Amino acid sequence: MNMMLRRLSRAATAGLVAAAALTAAAHSAEAADTLGSAAAGQGRYFGTAVAAGHLGEADYTATLDREFGSVTPENEMKWDATEPSRGTFTFTSADRIVDHAQSRGMDVRGHTLVWHSQLPSWVGTLGASDLRTAMKDHISGLMGHYKGEIHSWDVVNEAFQDGGSGARRSSPFQDKLGDGFIEEAFRAARAADPAAKLCYNDYNTDGVNAKSTAVYNMVKDFTSRGVPIDCVGFQSHFNSNSPVPSDYRQNLQRFADLGVDVQITELDIEGSGSAQAADYTKVVQACLAVERCTGMTVWGVTDKYSWRSGGTPLLFDGNYAEKPAYDAVLSALGGPGGPGEPGGPGEGTATCTATYTRTADWDGGYNGEVTVTAGSEPIGSWTATVTLPARQSVSALWNGTAAFNGNVMTVRPSWNGALAAGTSTTFGFTVTKNGSDAAPAVGACTAS
Of 101, 207, 297, 408, whose CA is between 20 and 30 Å from 430? Predict the structure, then answer.
């Protein structure tokens, strides 16, 4: 696919994702049975960090596609991965993640544009004038490639020191360009993609402390002077030595009160069992309590690939089994399984049917729509399968989340899982024909 067609395809998908997010927010009372769909029902996203090298693993992609509504490339958009030589960009690995996410209706967060770490060696050799130019060129080149396709960018990452001083971290940018480099980066980012949310991202800023206050003062200054900053990211890496702070919600709220969104961007909590589950619950509840907390991202799909794997910090274990922390997060997001929730204890046997209609057609593709109808009893959720003819592929999906196994697409609800007896909902998808105009086959609908 040439670059123009690639961009048109991505832009169309991004529009569908945005429309689906607005619809989800309007149906916040609906129950859902995955992390992404439950969060969407609360007007938030729930995402994960993704490594391109794991996308070939069936269990990894199945869990990713089923559970999450947003992805953040773990390393594939960092400076050393995208501009290893000055002026020469490479996007192969990042494109793989973006294409995978967008084909399944997921948002994408960009991570990260300006950071002291994972820099190619040539960056540190530049003088101040060349470094300023290189920084702006890097922002323009990377954001320009994905213009209109990335929901939020971590524009500057980890620019403040740990400890009680609230000072800036030493880096080529700080040392050669001074305090103003952060503002310069944000202004360059706004010029590169005016529609993207621009975030500052850092760690050990989760509670009210000297470091978070230094970031707060910077954001307050930026907003007062019209420097383009839209959100602040809180990495939220927790363990027994650095637990969820008691003033976590209060800290998120004070940033939100400055008029910016807040996002939990790299969440992981070392531990296991009920204690880990309780800590995850605290984080989710804090985000839900702050109106401008727009979403949460866990830093990885499975414990076995976590950067803190020895601490088993994620929601799925090394065999992709759901941990107690998963159940706690889903429950905190309003998903099924708790008392009084659809799909919880005491629910009866339920049925549903699925019917297919082609709603639009053109030379290279078509739009399909599947109507899911509940039987004589209410249902809490549903699952439908769509088998595509050989050569055809799905390029976009809305009002559902999908997992793929060969040419079989298994669709579960996003916001629209709970149906009263006899009522219906729909999900839709765009198919690239690749020379085949045959109709897909819709399998049996399963209700719970």
Answer: 297
Contact by Cβ (8 Å): 138, 113: yes
CA distance 76 to 117: 14
314 near 303, Cβ under 8 Å? yes
The pLDDT of residue 410 is 84
**278: how many CB neighbours lie within 10 A of its CB?**
15
Give the side-chain half-sphere CA count within 13 A for 48.
26
Angle made by CA atoms 55, 59, 65, in degrees to the nearest 5:
65
How far is CA 346 from each of CA 179, 313, 319, 350, 384, rounded to the nearest angstrom? 60, 32, 29, 12, 23
Among all residues, which ones are annotated catalytic? 158, 266
Tokens of 386: 């769509």
Pairing of strands 45-50, 293-298: parallel
Which residues in the chain show pLDDT less than 70? 1-32, 336-349, 405
Nearest C-alpha neighbor of 292 from the set 259, 336, 247, 244: 259
CA–CA gap between residue 292 and residue 262 (Å, rounded): 6
What ranges make up the beta strands (E) of 147-260? 152-157, 197-202, 231-234, 237-238
83, with CB counted inside 10 A (0-12, 13-18, 19+), is buried
Among residues 289, 443, 287, the alpha carbon closest in space to that of 352 is found at: 443
pTM: 0.73
Which residues, in sequence order, are CB contacts of 4 under 8 Å at separation 6+?
Answer: none
What is the pLDDT at residue 53?
Answer: 97
Q: What are phi and psi of 131, to 5 degrees?
A: -65, -40
Encoding tokens for residue 283?
A: 């984080």
Residues in Cβ contact with 314 at an 8 Å cutoff, skipping those fewer than 6 apart: 268, 298, 299, 300, 301, 302, 303, 306, 323, 325
Decide if 428 contacts 398 (C-beta within 8 A): yes
| Kind plus residue range of the DSSP H or E element containing 151 | none
